[in-house]
Amino acid sequence: MTSPLFRTKKVEQSIRDTEEPEHALKKSLSALDLTVFGVGVIIGTGIFVLTGTVAKDNAGPATALAFVVAGVVCALAALCYAEFASTVPVAGSAYTFSYASLGELPAWIIGWDLVLEFALGTAVVAVGWSGYIQSLMENAGWEMPAALGSREGSDVFGFDILAAVLVLVLTGILVLGMKLSARVTSVVVAIKVTVVLVVIIAGAFFITADNYDPFILESQPVPAGESLDSPLIQLMFGWAPANFGVMGIFTAASVVFFAFIGFDIVATAAEETRNPQRDMPRGILGSLFICTVLYVLVSLVVTGMQHYSELSVDAPLADAFKATGHPWFAGFISFGAAVGLTTVCMILLLGQTRVFFAMSRDGLLPTFFSRVHPRFRTPHRPTILLGVVIAVLAGFTPLNELAALVNIGTLFAFVIVAISVIILRRTRPDLHRAFRTPWVPVLPIVSVGASLWLMLNLPAETWVRFGIWMAIGIVVYFLYSRTHSRMAREKDTSPAPPAS
Questions:
Q1: Minimal CA–CA distance to 333: which of 314, 360, 308, 357?
Q2: Under the phi-then-psi rule, with left for phi > 0, alpha for psi from -120 to 50, and beta for the rest, what region is 238?
Q3: Which of 104, 106, 260, 266 is most deeply buried (CB count within 10 A of its CB)?
Q4: 240-272: pLDDT as tens digits
Q5: Which of 106, 122, 100 is nearest to 470 (CA)?
Q6: 403/461 Cα distance (integer angstroms)
Q7: Angle at 171 between CA 385 and CA 116, to 5 degrees
Q8: d(CA 340, CA 337)
């Protein structure tokens, strides 16, 4: 397409931009660092909370199969991400990939989407972390003043100081360098994975086989008006999702998908990886595989320890151990969850700052934010700006109802990346691809279909909010980004063709 709205940025140009001294990020990450980042951001609130919810409401003992379905959807997308991240090792993830294949306007749309996704994700996780910390403090006899604690269930207007401080501290760590961030993440991930392994190994001794019978329950219609009832599916297909049964498993998969969000953030660190062609596929696919196995095992253990109908919604893992008479494990799990959420928050913030930095370097956002720190070689300006904004957001704004926007934003990015793989294979078959997505175009098409299916299972209100944010992004693009784009400026300053 010849329209300026769909002008693409050549892969070679994207790579050359990363070599400019004032925009060059420091390359310090290995395949192990990337895998740790992936595991660090994936294992979070989802596994510690969502297991009880979907077991009681949707899948019963077959919750493990819901995690498998969500993992397969993510694996399809991960194969597409792996090809792009190794072929275009540039910060920005899906934004950069779509700029090279679909054009400037689609790239702006997906970048705008990712900014929202990562901001809300960071704030939601920070508030969740604050809740865990306050719970541990209360167990020790300390209680936060209502005006400085979480707002959930409280009529007192306050500022969640713990959530805000966490975001600001992590902002400082990210400014100081990626290697420091990787070291902090490695320590915290080791603690978090240890907690998950304790749940699996210790919980296996308390499994009661009768809790698995039957494994897949009889299907039941979702009562009208329930939050998991998708009006979009009813509108398009004339039927509603089901509780339990096979359809209950798919409905549950659209919910537990939140637990897998994060592997795509590994792609945002491509520019800071020493050998991205080799290490990016290993980091993306390795972290996703490890987490999927851990999720399936945890869900099998928890639904085996306690009947699915009796599982806690707020803290299913911890309360399952309490129900078997082992409260010590419950405290240990709560501590691991609180510690583990710090890496989720940090890596979500990392992903957002890299997307923002890449968009600024291309001129779609003010170029003031595209300069790196002269000593630490990190994008300190967008990191500080976004860190402060998200700290305020986490402190003041109740975000529970907006958390579903994180899901729809991620799935939308999956769709764009899968389509981009097909397009770039046709338009640039000459590019060297260190990793090639198998069975193109069949696998990317299946990935698009699977992602859209999970999107349709989300509430209609989520689609409305997502549409409003996208509409705002379109306005910003036409008022600012279209004319300030680096490609637009280079075109305006290029010499005119000779007269015939």
A1: 314
A2: left
A3: 266
A4: 555 677 878 887 887 787 778 777 888 888 889
A5: 106
A6: 12
A7: 55
A8: 5
